[in-house]
Amino acid sequence: MKSKSSQLLIPLVALSLSSCTQKKEEVRRPNIIFMMTDDHTTQAMSCYGGNLIQTPNMDRIANEGVRFDNCYVVNAISGPSRACILTGKFSHENGFTDNASVFNGDQQTFPKLLQKAGYQTAIVGKWHLISEPQGFDYWSILSGQHEQGDYYSPDFWEMGDYIREEGYATDIITEKAINFLENRDKSKPFCMMYHQKAPHRNWMPAPRHLGIFNDTVFPEPANLFDDYEGRGQAARQQDMSIEHTLTEDWDLKLLTRAEMLKDTTNRLYEVYKRMPLAVQDKWDSVYAKRIAEYRKGDLTGKALISWKYQQYMRDYLSTLLAVDENIGQLMRYLEDIGELDNTIIVYTSDQGFFLGEHGWFDKRFMYEECQRMPLIIRYPKGIAAGSTSSAITMNVDFAPTFLDYAEAEIPEDIQGSSLKPILENAGKTPKDWRKAAYYHYYEYPAEHNVKRHYGIRTKDHKLIRFYNDIEEWELYDMKADPREMNNVFGKPEYAQVQKEMIELLRQTQQQYKDFDPDEKEKELFKGDRRLLEERK
Ligand code: SGN
Ligand code: CA
Description:
alpha/beta; 3 domains; ten-stranded mixed beta sheet; four-stranded antiparallel beta sheet; binds 2-deoxy-6-O-sulfo-2-(sulfoamino)-alpha-D-glucopyranose; binds calcium ion
């Protein structure tokens, strides 16, 4: 078993000197609320310096706690990220490599371990792992749309039953969270996973926020019109561009009510009919202006891309407003019941997202905007307010962190590391902390056409190898080129860095026991059979 943080001993010593009532107070382990949204990226959070929208309730978590600036997802897509979080293991170890996988629910997960350690556990909202949740005293997860769920009148799979709820998903998930807290076993600490669907595609805002950004013009990222010069085929062959991939109906919402109702096979019709009539009316009036503008037909080329970018931003960002409001509501509830400061509140997203950078939406690539996850944590009893951490952290670190705070043992086979030493030390990175985040993406061939790739991200550099039906390497100097526009792999001035990064990649793969079955991988290591054998 990995050793737990030595600071745990201090409160225990203090306890033996205190009265019985105090003793009861002090041995209390913290509650945990693990808030996760779907596809929320740091560019759209004011506490990360984003200038797109204000997120006051998320900012409160960061200001009263810690903000991690280098937290990375190890496989930037929903199901795999969630499986890594639950198990504290990489995709090749937990078996859920892409969204077509089914989670083997019999394996070890942190909610099961917390349950054993005396926690009451729950999950509300998005699950996306197909198999029935295990390790939860209460679960109510989105079903429908391949487990993505619906924004309006969503269906839930709740403790074995299927039910449809009236209302807007982000609000409903909060109601379910509060209901669980209200009815929980108050003799135990709790761990609740509060997982929003928003702001996932197709970005449908709450009724109260429909049209709110209609007259706002959002700043464009500097590389909205990226031509991928100096980079390879992976970036060129993707299918996630604002220009070509955003659809007129599902994404841009350019159908009138009459058109939607005429064609019942249309996907937009399906989600539209879930709205109450009054909301449909509001929707129509809000999108009418957009439809009219588009149908004038005078937008072409770059102007059309800019226009689509604005519509995408208006929908994506207004969908987030309800997320932030609901976080505020949940925190106020915790305050009312006197549990706010006894609760570790974590806010993150299953991965980052492109908001027009490189001309894209979606995620999957190991490029910064989506590899980087938001991670802010509030726990005034153990984290100094206003701290920031630049430590290289990964989503496989969440499970051991929760176990550490719950004073449960962290099993040896968990691959991540507890963040507690960082949290307790005002965000400072321990001397022996890891130097690289590992990444491996598998979902290809598939939607959005992003090639398989793996790599490492250190403080200063990023190395990526695209493989399978392609053989390409990329190396980025993250200090000189934070937008990853200039691939320096093979450039003589980076020869030394390249050598070191390849070596570190090999070591990292060995450490995490990732073996790529691809034949080209064997070729790559053919000069070193011993290494190949070991990696098996
Ligand atoms: C859906 C979306 C994709 C998205 C995946 C995975 N298409 O298939 O754009 O990449 O989910 O997202 S949609 O037409 O249904 O909107 S994930 O976050 O769940 O992994
Ligand atoms: Ca996602």
